[in-house]
Amino acid sequence: MINYLKWLFTEYYFKYWSRILNLLATLFGIFLGFYIPVPVIEEYIYGNIPLLAVIGVFITTYGFLVGMLYYPTRFYPKKRK
Q1: How far is the C-alpha of 17 from the C-alpha of 24, rounded, in Å?
Q2: 52-73, pLDDT tens digit by residue?
Q3: What's the rounded Cα separation, in Å, for the pair 21 and 59?
Q4: What's the whole-model pTM score?
Q5: How far apart are CA 31 and CA 68, in angstroms?
Q6: Alpha carbon distance 28, 7 (integer Å)
Q7: Phi, psi of 59 (to 5 degrees)
Q8: pLDDT of the residue at 44
């Protein structure tokens, strides 16, 4: 795990500028994962928002976050071989 994190932050993210954007998008996804639930649930409880919209927001937010965290792992096994 330590080797993977070392590779992730030394060779993957900071080698090309487009991958720095991936890091920023990952940090943005982490921020959204903490920020989004409170207003969405408040709107569902006190407002007039349907349950399917709430479920869609959670799937979209956490799907984006999981995708951004999982994306670099596709390149790590190729690097090790």
Answers
A1: 11
A2: 999 999 999 999 998 888 888 7
A3: 22
A4: 0.75
A5: 13
A6: 21
A7: -65, -45
A8: 93
> What span, in angstroms and rounded, lies between the C-alpha atoms of 8 and 43?
38
Q: In sequence order, which ranges of 1-81 are alpha helices (DSSP H)?
A: 2-7, 17-35, 37-46, 51-70, 76-80
Burial of 74 (0-12, 13-18, 19+ CB in 10 A): exposed
SS3 48: coil
Yes or no: say if 26 and 12 are a contact pair by the CB < 8 Å rule. Answer: no
Burial class of residue 59, CB neighbours in 10 A (0-12, 13-18, 19+): exposed
Q: Provide the token pair at 64.
A: 């984006």
One-letter amino acid for residue 65 of the chain: L
